[in-house]
């Protein structure tokens, strides 16, 4: 259940981050620029290029954010693999289901391997975050703030490493 919660929290946080920053903030900034900065076609091209650049950065698709994208892609793959840890009850007969217990439906060694890789990826995100600018309006700093809103990950990581960052 803990791994399920961690994976779900990551996925819902990633969705919330993209929705809030791409659909709301960046899009509204683009609309505002269209209304107040555009006087000719070159202005439209420039304002659109700024929007696309922001979008690439927000989605971790820019050259500067490739390390973050690599980690997130790995975590999304682990979320998919996590689904395969559970046997489907639909494929079994009712008599077989009655004889099974919960432990026979879950591949716990695979869940543990996913947990280990997932937590390692969280640590990697933390390291990238600690090296990045904390003053970025959009990007990893904002995403880490959403993901680590109660400082669960940073406290766990610093406790595991044995040092504290001030």
Automatic annotation (TrEMBL):
Q: Which UniProt keywords apply?
A: Cytoplasm, Cytoskeleton, Microtubule
GO terms of biological process kind: cytoplasmic microtubule organization; meiotic cell cycle; microtubule nucleation; mitotic cell cycle; spindle assembly
Q: Which GO terms describe its molecular function?
A: gamma-tubulin binding; microtubule minus-end binding
Kindly list the places in or outside the cell where this protein is found, as annotated in its UniProt entry.
Cytoplasm, Cytoskeleton, Microtubule organizing center
Q: Name one GO cellular component term.
A: microtubule
Q: What is its main location?
A: cytoplasm
Keyword Heme listed? The answer is no
Q: Which family does it belong to?
A: Belongs to the TUBGCP family.
Functional note: Component of the gamma-tubulin ring complex (gTuRC) which mediates microtubule nucleation.
Q: Which PANTHER family match?
A: GAMMA TUBULIN COMPLEX PROTEIN, GAMMA-TUBULIN COMPLEX COMPONENT 6
Q: What is this protein called?
A: Gamma-tubulin complex component
